[in-house]
Amino acid sequence: QKAVKATSKYHSTSDDEDSQQNSSGKETGHLHRLARRRKTVKLCRALSDLVVYTNSVAAQDIVDDGSTGNVLSFSETRAHQAVQQKAEQFMLYNQKQLTRVYPSAYRIDSSNFNPLPYWNVGCQLVALNYQSEGRVMQLNDAKFRVNGNCGYVLKPQQMCKGTFNPYSSDPLPASPKKQLILKIISGQQLPKPPDSMLGDRGEVRYSDANKCFHESSRFLWTCFPKFLFCFTGFNPVWEETLTFTIHMPEIALVRFLVWDHDPIGRDFVGQRTLAFSSLVPGYRHVYLEGLTEASIFVHITINEIYGK
Q1: Which Gene Ontology terms describe the biological processes this protein takes part in (predicted)?
Q2: CATH H superfamily, domain 52-159
Q3: Considering all CA atoms of the chain, what is the largest pairwise distance in Å, rounded to the nearest integer?
Q4: SS3 category, 107
């Protein structure tokens, strides 16, 4: 349309304005060429059909409008309500359409929410503040490291058809479960945290993990056990055994943490978060992230169990 208007304007001008219209004529010719070039572009229909354009739609609640191209965007507050009140309905919805959960606008410090509840009901896009390090980003890294950090991880088949209540004590009673037996043997090259009052004389001892496991018991089927230790020396020995029942090993994460038992100073030593599917039975060194030689020496046993 621009080209047609420019052409008509060019022909209606007087001879006295010819010099001024030369540049306009050049632009007109350029527009004609562009229009002609656009008309001759050929698209491969099969390739074009593979492209899916999505439309982000702000949502207050789960609404099935049948528009497969829509991505329902929930703030973490709304998503939390949906998970608490309509977990099964939320999972069914995520089998047909895309949902996205993003941090609340009140997180002005760029902090993050726990992504596990939203992954557990099948939300495909759980947006986090990548500029903020910490436990949440460590969980996120472990989740996607399974597929080489390529950007996506396939959901297990149980979440793609049918439904179950993730808050149930036994959400998949007919499915076999995994029993994880972890023998925490010793630690190697464990440094003291900065500003430790006791210095190298600090004590590294085993701390009760049951309290930590109880914290995640609402998601037993994803089993997010944490193993906490308080600090006793450069190469401590624990020889402690922990046993966990994992209801859905495909999405379970196992988190190792080492803490320093010191009344003054920083108490966190290091951590390593792994997907359950990455664990290999036998004697293993679990290297703490960000520390060159620090590791935990463990023995891993995985059994398949049935029933409660």
Answers
A1: lipid catabolic process; phosphatidylinositol metabolic process; phosphatidylinositol-mediated signaling; release of sequestered calcium ion into cytosol
A2: Phosphatidylinositol (PI) phosphodiesterase (3.20.20.190)
A3: 100
A4: coil
